[in-house]
Every structure is written in C-alpha cells, then in structure tokens.
C-alpha cells in the first residue's frame, strides 16, 4: 500500500476502535467509496438520529446491496453520501470519500460537479427521471453537454454509444422517441444510460427494479452486473428484495432502524445469516419453482417478523430489534451490540469477512448455529385439519366462476393508420386486443393465479370479471351459491389510494357494511366493523385512526377487512403485495391463506412475483399480449413448463441462491429487446 493510500485511509478511518468500525482488512484495497461512522439526523441535535454510525466501502467493479424494511434508512444513506439530504436533515458526524476525495466538506456547487461526473443515479420510477416533453436524444445530449462539454455531432455519437451500451435496440430510432413511447424496461435502460453519461465512479441505484415485472427486473440486474464488470464502476444497490441481492450483488449490508446490523459476502449473508433480523427477512420470502430450498414445500407458512420498525424517537434501549426478536435476552435490552467479525468455516469467501451486530452471533466469535437464532419458519401445514380437508375437497368443489372466450379491445386505430388505409384501399389496422379469447374457471375455495409481463392483460381480466369493464365478446358467468347472487370483492396494489384519507379505518369498513349488511343498526354495525379489523390482526385502537397513521401492511389489512364485509365468495387480488416489504408481505399472505381456509373463499390472484404465485395458488394461468399461452396445476406449470414464454418468466425470477454470471448474460441477451 502506498503512502498516499495509507494517509487517505487514516484520514477517513481515524480509529478502528470506534463503535461500528470495520477493520481495514475488510476493505477493498482500492475502494471507490468509503463511508466512515456516518451519522445523519435533524438539525436539532436533541432529536434522535435517522442514520447512526454507518461504515462501509465499495470497490471498483463491486456491487453492494443495501437492504432492509421501509424506514430502515436505506434511501437516507444513499442521499447522505451523494449530498442530497432533505431540507432540515444534516450530516452530524462521519466522513464520505469518493475515489480518495473527501465529499463531506464540499460546498453545494462542488457537490453538483461530483454528481453526474462522480456519481450517477438510477431511481425506482424512470418516468420521474425523464422529461416527458423532450426526446430521449435531447435529454441525453443535454446531459452529455453539461457533463462532458461536447455538443452537436460529438454529443449525438456519444448518446448512441450510451444507448448501445445500455442494451437498447435501434438506438438511432430511440433518439427521436419520447419516454411514453417506450416500455418500462426500456425507460429504465435510458435512465442507466443517463447515469453513465459522465463516466461516474459510483452508481447509486435506489430500488431500480421494484416497479418492473420479473422479466424486466432480470434485464436490469443483468445490465448492472455487466456494467460493473466492464466499466469497473462501483454500484450501491438499494433494495428490499433479497432475491435481487442474490442475483446481483457481491456483498450485502443489512440496515435496521438506521444501524448496520450485518455485512458480508452476499452468498454468506443469504445462506448463513447471523443476525435474527436478516434471518427473518429471508424466511419471509416465498420461493419460486427454481428455488432449490423450497421446491418440495411451496405452501409453507411464511416467516413473520412481528411488530414494526420503531420510529426514530421511539427506539428501545439496547439492540433496536430486541422487541421483535424471539431470541432476545435481558442483555439485548441493555447495550447496543457492535459489529464483530464472524468466524464461519463455511464462508464462501474467507477473504471477504462477514460481520454481524448481535450478541448471540458474536459469542466466541463463531457462527451461531441456525437453531439459536431461528424464527422456526417452515411448518408445512400450520392450519392442521383445515388444510387437509381443503386439499381433499378441492377436486370435487363446484365452479364459482366461468370465463368463456372473453375478448376486449381498447381504443381505435390512429388517424394516420386510418388515412393510410383509406388511400390504399386496405382495411384499417385494428387496435391490439387487451384480451383475446380468454377462458378460465375457478372452483369454490380455489386460488387461480394469473401471471405475465406488464401489458399482458392480467388487470383487464380482473376488471372484466368484476364488471368494471364490459367485454366485446364472450361471457363471464357466476354460480349462484345457495340461491343468491355471488359476492365479489377486490384488493388493489396500493392500499393508500384505495382508502379514503378522511375516513378512519372503522368508518371505511362501516361504509362497506352499510351496502352489504343494511339490516345492521349503528351499534351492531360498529361492533361488526371492529370484529373485522380484529380478524385481520389490527388492534382495537386502529378503529379511530386514519390511513396516514398506518404502515403499508396495516393499510392493506384494512383493505382486506373492508373486502370481508360483504362475505365474498370470490376475492379479486390485483398485485396485493407488490408495494409491501417482504416481512409485511408474509403477514398479508399468511392472513389471506388463513381466511381462505376458514371461509372457503376463492381467489383470482394477479401478480408478477412468481414466488408469491407459487406460494398462494392451486392453478396458474400464463398470459402474453392478451392471450393465455399456458395454464395448469401449479406444480406442473412451475416444474415442467411447456411454453417458451413460461420458461422465460421462470428463468427471470430472482431467487435466493447466488447467481451464475453465465445465467445473467443469457437472460440479458434473450430479453434485451423487451
């Protein structure tokens, strides 16, 4: 190590004995990014910090995953190291260095020069990063002109190179396209091209795949891996998806309540987690068919981390996780554990140390046996005789829904298409069909999942079944249980937008009861609403609270309670967990399975998450461009898919097993045009 490097490390890491310090031996020899003892909080020092004593580093060509639930501090960490902290939030202590240059003392003007040239950004929603009124070429050339100081033909040539490097087909055509004319995956590739325009040393990718389906997600993660390898750019990947970490990252860092609780090689963190929080996150994830660990038991009861992330002002003393930890002891309530190295003989990379901030994990400096910090997930049939009875009766259950030959077309041919047809004498091209001769059946107590990429027709099918859309052809027929009309309810992707912000949780459920149980008087209706909220696991105090006072998972529970008010025969679930953390998702999925067993409800379950689909469904319907391309029992579709499109979807699903680089290259090559 040179004298300059040693001086740099000494300046950034003044003391390795400080809390949360990671020994220098754990750092890359040539770190691109070094974050040392970073603490962030409000300007008022009396208020508790939002991020406490964060220390990590990322080397050239390395991808570091930063994971945790909402509120853990992931996005705050990304904002802090790039100088984009919200108004009123400041760096209280610590240092950040990029390529050997300290950033924490720079002025805003100097930081603007670093952003773009030194740090590139990729955010969750590409539409918010792109100007809808500018062509892709104009946006790229403007960025290149600002960062590189070139214009005209040179800027255009550089823009074409960036689009090609981002894996976009026909870059010449894309230069004249607008963002709304591109698919979600193509827009995200354009954002990555913009992030590369200044040849940055570091890319901060904040949930870059959350809004994408499995195929597009696989494309973007494969692209990030290729860019890190070919350009040598360091990547900080902020995500709540442990499958994405497994598929993409070299190392993983786990945040809880603003503190780093575990860090190490991604394969070690995922296969030998040492902190109970990390174990709980991994246990919360339903596995797809390609997951070796869950292929034989797809319907296990998912792990639940009880409780919620504490607000900064209400953090408990000692380890912040101890109120939610089943392995907690009295000692855990007294002191904040330090990050200590775990001596794990089974480590996949002994040269890349593994650290955990847990008193049990650090005992004697050795890896903790799984049973000591296990959350005891994996009871195959936690519902006992109810589950056995359902499985036995399902084959003979009567049909509750039959969809026959349904087709639906939106819009009309464009004016240009109609004009061309008029002058050529040809028949004008018709708008594409959102649904094309779709037929499905659902039995009582059965869950049928509909999967496919964005735009495949999944949500259109659900809205047609619900009667919100009228089909152009075909029929939707319901059985009439017990001589009455069937009852249908819906659960939507975003519970925030489906709840009235002016109504309390109790009032939202009461409103549904007024429609479906008008015979109930005021006091009886209130009692029934309170009982429904209690049934979905909400405390009595939730009755008088409004939606903004709940977490995302709690809001979805309110939506489920409201749906139960009509005692539905069929529940239409349109991406009900895609906006939730994995730990909250597990709670909602377990609740839905329990309610199905108790009430005999049927589910039409729409999702792009194949792990969730495998966990929830009995049969699978695969859709592409409005048509059903494959359908059958869950185990047959996942275990032996017949259609190429189904095989592509399964190959794209991020799973917890560490990824094979060859697989990533294959996925990117096969799906780059999507």
From TrEMBL:
Task: Please give the biological process terms from Gene Ontology that the record holds.
Answer: peptide transport; transmembrane transport
Q: How does it sit in the membrane?
A: Peripheral membrane protein
Keywords assigned by UniProt, alphabetized: ATP-binding, Cell membrane, Lyase, Membrane, Nucleotide-binding, Transport
Q: Which Gene3D superfamilies match?
A: P-loop containing nucleotide triphosphate hydrolases
Offer a single GO CC term for the protein.
plasma membrane
ABC transporter domain mapped to chain residues: 33-282, 401-650
Chief localization: membrane
**GO terms assigned for molecular function:** ATP binding; ATP hydrolysis activity; lyase activity
Compartments, as annotated in UniProt? Cell inner membrane
Q: Which InterPro entries match?
A: AAA+_ATPase, ABC_Ni/Peptide_Import, ABC_transporter-like_ATP-bd, ABC_transporter-like_CS, Oligopep_ABC_C, P-loop_NTPase
Mind telling me which Pfam families this protein's record contains?
ABC_tran, oligo_HPY
SMART domains in the record, alphabetically? AAA
Give the NCBIfam families listed for this entry: oligo_HPY (TIGR01727), PRK11308.1 (NF008453)
- Protein family (similarity comment): Belongs to the ABC transporter superfamily.
Q: What is this protein called?
A: Putative phosphonate C-P lyase system protein PhnK
Say which species the protein is native to: Sutterella parvirubra YIT 11816
């Amino acid at each position: 190590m040179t004298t300059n490097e040693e001086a740099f490390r000494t300046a950034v890491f003044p003391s390795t004995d400080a809390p949360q310090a990671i020994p220098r031996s754990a750092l890359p020899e040539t770190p691109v990014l070094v974050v040392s003892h970073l603490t962030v909080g409000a300007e008022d020092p009396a208020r508790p910090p939002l991020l406490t004593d964060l220390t990590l580093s990322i080397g050239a060509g390395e991808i570091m995953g930063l994971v945790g639930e909402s509120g853990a501090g992931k996005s705050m960490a990304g904002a802090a190291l790039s100088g984009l902290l919200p108004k009123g939030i400041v760096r209280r202590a610590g240092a950040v260095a990029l390529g050997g240059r300290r950033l924490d003392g720079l002025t805003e003007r100097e930081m603007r020069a670093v952003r773009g040239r030194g740090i590139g950004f990729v955010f969750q929603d590409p539409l918010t990063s792109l100007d809808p009124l500018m062509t892709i070429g104009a946006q790229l050339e403007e960025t290149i002109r600002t960062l590189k100081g070139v214009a005209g033909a040179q800027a255009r040539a550089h823009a074409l190179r960036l689009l090609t490097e981002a894996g976009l087909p026909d870059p010449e055509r894309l230069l004249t396209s607008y963002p709304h004319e591109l698919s979600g995956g193509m827009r995200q590739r354009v954002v990555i091209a913009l992030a590369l325009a200044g040849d940055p040393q570091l890319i901060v990718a904040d949930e870059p795949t959350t809004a994408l389906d499995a195929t597009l997600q696989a494309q973007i993660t494969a692209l990030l891996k290729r860019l890190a390898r070919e350009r040598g750019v360091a990547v900080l990947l902020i995500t709540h998806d442990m499958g994405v970490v497994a598929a993409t990252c070299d190392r993983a860092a786990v945040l809880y309540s603003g503190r780093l609780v575990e860090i190490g090689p991604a394969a070690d963190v995922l296969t030998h987690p040492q902190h109970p929080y990390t174990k709980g996150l991994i246990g919360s994830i339903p596995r797809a068919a390609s997951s070796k660990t869950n292929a034989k038991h797809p319907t296990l009861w998912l792990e639940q981390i009880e409780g919620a992330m504490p607000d900064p002002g209400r953090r408990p003393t000692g380890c912040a996780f101890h109120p939610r930890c089943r392995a907690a002891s009295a000692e855990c309530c007294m002191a904040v554990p330090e990050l200590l190295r775990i001596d794990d003989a089974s480590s996949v990379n002994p040269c890349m140390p593994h650290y955990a901030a847990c008193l049990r994990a650090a005992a004697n400096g050795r890896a903790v046996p799984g049973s000591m910090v296990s959350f005891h997930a994996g009871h195959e049939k936690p519902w006992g005789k109810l589950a056995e009875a359902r499985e036995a009766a399902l084959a003979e259950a009567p049909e509750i829904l039959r969809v026959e030959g349904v087709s639906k077309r939106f819009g009309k041919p464009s004016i240009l298409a109609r004009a061309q047809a008029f002058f050529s004498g040809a028949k004008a091209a018709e708008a594409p069909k959102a649904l094309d001769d779709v037929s499905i059946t659902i039995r009582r107590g059965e869950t049928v999942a509909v999967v496919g990429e964005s735009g495949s027709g999944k949500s259109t099918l659900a809205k047609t079944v619900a009667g919100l859309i009228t089909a152009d052809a075909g029929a939707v027929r319901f059985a009439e249980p017990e001589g009455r009309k069937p009852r249908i309810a819906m659960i939507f992707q975003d519970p925030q937008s489906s709840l009235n912000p002016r109504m309390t949780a109790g009032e939202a459920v009461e409103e549904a009861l007024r429609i479906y149980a008008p015979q109930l008087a005021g006091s009886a209706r209130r009692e029934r609403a309170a009982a429904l909220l209690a049934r979905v696991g909400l405390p009595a105090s939730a009755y008088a609270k409004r939606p903004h006072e709940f977490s995302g998972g709690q809001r979805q529970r309110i939506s489920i309670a409201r749906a139960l008010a009509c005692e539905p025969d069929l529940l239409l679930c349109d991406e009900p967990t895609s906006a939730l953390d994995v730990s909250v998702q597990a709670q909602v999925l377990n609740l839905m399975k329990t309610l199905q067993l108790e009430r005999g409800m049927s589910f039409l379950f729409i999702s792009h998450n194949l792990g969730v689909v495998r966990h929830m469904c009995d049969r699978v319907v695969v859709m592409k461009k409005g048509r059903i391309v494959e359908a059958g029992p869950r185990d047959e579709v996942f275990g032996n898919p017949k259609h190429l499109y189904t095989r592509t979807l399964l190959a794209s699903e991020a799973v917890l097993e560490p990824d094979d680089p060859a697989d990533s290259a294959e996925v990117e090559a096969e799906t780059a045009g999507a």
